[in-house]
């Protein structure tokens, strides 16, 4: 945050200053959220206490390995194929929730598009379940991470359960924390095979080293958040740009079509600025704020055509009414229809349907009466034609006028009652014409006159004028434009707030790049010093020194020199030197970060004897502050580590080739080696020396006291782990005691066992008796006599076995 404030204070351009201010505000916001977020990367480092794998890689059975979380070295040694990498990879998979490397998935071949040839198979063949789990602890807290893996080797679930010091248990979403960034920046598991296989090019080395620079989870979260918001703003801007492009295209098409329909009608072109700041103001400026639906085109011709059709119909009825007045004439049309029905009858009968008298010739007489009305035929045809045209006009012009007035989005002057009345009377007339045909019947005449009483009023004329205004050509043109830009308007309203910040977030992203470059250069200097120290520790005898490390956005520039001070190409390093060179940066940064342990799988690949010893010295130094687990088949590394480390546990690992069952068995521990040394002194120096600073008896008893102390330490650690107590607290109580007797008494109080079980410390204390004081005094040079030392060595061995359980 200090660096951001400094960049903000020195920025001159307003855009740059706004970007730095934006980045600072985002940093403060993330900081406030992180303070209330449960993040296991905050606080004291986590210590590894156990790892469990089931059906994972080469483990067909369940393998559980308990780990001493206190500082020291644990060696897991065995031949190739015994399951060492299975456990090491299981630790990494459970920690990260991924079967891939810490930083990125393995790139697929561009040629074959298939997985790399040497990619590991993480699900054991025929395994019912594939699972990897680790348990981490720190000061009364426990964090359990477990992964379930599918048959294709992909992690299907990654769960984290955090038991707080208060006893409260919570499920943690590690994706919402800095956990993955901590793993990438401070990888607690190093497997040479993975690193060597993935770091093949300069860009790979840059990624490997840049992650080890460990800008910190906060910075990575900040960078990810800026990238996320920048991407969202860019996407929002693109959505608006795409919608703008489509709207421009559709408006241009509408303008072209309407311009051809009425060349004399010209309306102002739509103004499209580079960025629309306020959509409603833009709509008003371009007369696009009326978003009503498109209406039928109503002109003065609509009312004229409707009025003319109505007048012709009324005049046709008037002509019929003006013909000679007789009942027969008035019923002429009905008589014609009646005659047509009679003709259609197969047997009309002899009874007249009018007078009910028997008149066998009544159909003939009806026919003659109809023929006598031939002089009215032209009038009836004219009326029928007028009704047809009136019906068509009602279905078109009349309906369009009604539709425009009814669909108007704006309030209209025309009374709704007038519209309802006109619609009802038009519907009534059309219903009669549909039922009886367009015949000038009395009913049709009545409905025409009722409609005329409405449509020949001043109110209806005004209604037609209003409909014409509402559906004016230019208005409809603008409505079509508005419909064409509707998607754009919706897109703008949805995305404009984010899109308006696109330029700001682009500038903010540039600020993050500047900050990254600044932090990279500043931390690369410290990193070069630290990594250079580890390179010197591992390769000084070969005269290989790390002079400088510089990272660009694409590559890593690493300057290495030979004993003569001449620059060396990395390609000139031997396999062992290359391994040491890749291991050195990780060992240089391991002391920071949230992990209080280090796991190394085959760290001495291609090492010579000198390199093995130099690595053992470095690991012994690191193990003073954290537990170092070393998986190796190399007996040289095992021997050098046990010689250099004061707290060293050794386990032999083996795997049944037929069943795939992996077994772990404790092998020579340091206390056993000390007892062996005591026996060697006893057998090789049977007589007391008169010239030595300490007598052989004092040396032997000092070794016995040290062996018992180491076994006691291991017993306390194991009991603390199994009992869920904090290891550091128990060891602090133990180390506060100055004498062996006091440490035994304290351990007896610390360690608890179930009722009925033997107490390991009590058993060892009873077995040793007053020898404890004798051994303790011998260390301080107190005079002593040579008793049965062989018996004392045996008693010490049995006491140590009591303490460690075998």
UniProtKB/TrEMBL annotation:
Highest taxon above the source species: Bacteria
Q: Matching InterPro entries, A to Z?
A: P-loop_NTPase (IPR027417), Rad50/SbcC_AAA (IPR038729)
Query: Where do the coiled-coil regions begin and end?
Result: none
Q: In what residue span(s) does the Rad50/SbcC-type AAA domain sit?
A: 67-104
Pfam families for this protein: AAA_23 (PF13476)
* Family matches, as PANTHER family: ABC TRANSPORTER ABCH.3 (PTHR32114:SF2)
Q: How does the record describe its quaternary structure? A: Heterodimer of SbcC and SbcD.
Family statement drawn from the similarity comment of this UniProt entry: Belongs to the SMC family. SbcC subfamily.
Name assigned to this protein: Nuclease SbcCD subunit C
Organism, scientific name: Streptomyces phaeoluteigriseus
Output the lineage of the source organism.
Answer: Bacteria, Bacillati, Actinomycetota, Actinomycetes, Kitasatosporales
